[in-house]
Amino acid sequence: MRVGLVCAHAAPPPSGDGTVVGTYQHIARVAAELAGRGHDVRVYTRRDDPETTESDLVDGYRVERAPVGPIAPIPTAELVPYVPAFGQWLADRWSGDWTPEVVHGHYWVGGLAAAQAVRETDIPVVQTFHSLGMEQLRHLGPQYDGPGTRIPLERALTRAVDMAVAQCNDEVDELTRMGLQRSAVAMVPTGVDIDRFHPDGEAAPRDQRPRILSVGGLSRGHGQDDLIRAMRLVGDAELVIAGGPPVEGLAHHAEARRLRELAERIGVGEQVHLVGAVPHEQMATWYRSADVVACTPRYSSAGRVSLEAMACGVPVVGYAMGGIADAVVDEVTGKLVPPGDVRTLGMTLRRMLTDNAGRFAYGHAAVDRVRCSYTWERTAAALERLYERVVGRRKPVEAA
Question: Which stretches are transmembrane (predicted)?
């Protein structure tokens, strides 16, 4: 099958924070898995680096970069004016000797370009939003900083696609509230690289105190301040926060300074350590060094951090929302607590750290859960079946 994957910014984030996997890495792995299953896959993105070529072959699939907009990384809000040109470039590209049988848009800007490119064809469009503006606004409130055009454009995009892919059950509900029929929403969770994330291997250095690890970008929406407040109830343990800019840039990072000031103010400054960005290929060593991984973002559609931690055999204490609630089986692979309930969070972490046998059991169950339900092979197989279904719906019935 000829598959076109479209994302307007399939490149590492300008912040340089490699700790958290982005949309670009998700697409790259999906493309490689589909190519490995025998499909002819092409990834279409915007050229944002003068050092890259317009087309090259990577891991069995082809990457084509559109000369649209400035050749530099730009924020999502600034990409919107270039969507028509990107869509037209795709349409021109697909009018030649290679036309996709199915197009899969990623994130809302990529989806808009994909939908525009095929609007005068019978090529079906599948869409993965990765996050939804309306849901982020609901959870983040005043901390939501998305462009004002995002929510109405996402709502319009739901009317232009054949099938939407949700990464968690909360996202399924949100898409149906936006007007999609439930039959037009497929739940396909993200995958985990179990060759990289597994219990056996090196662990990052640590002292004798129990370690709680938090992974995520440094912003108020990621919930590190909740964890710092919860440390007053945890006792003698360290909280390691991985994410944000490289460690040498933390001194000048506003959120890093705010978190350190908060820790000092409530008396846990000596227990809280910010280590900055960690290359994603080194994250497994940090997961293995932890007794518990805490996942407390206000919004998380994929729950990727919880899955990577579980794959490394580490129990998770997380907020019962989004992809975290789907990934973590309460009292089996970890503990779920109500979002924003700092007291329950602190007491749950304290009990988890003192229960050696419980952590051991949770860790083993966590590894089994990831290997059974969250491999990239399963993700690619589910997408393959979905593509076949939407292509079958669009193909005209031959005359008898």
Answer: none
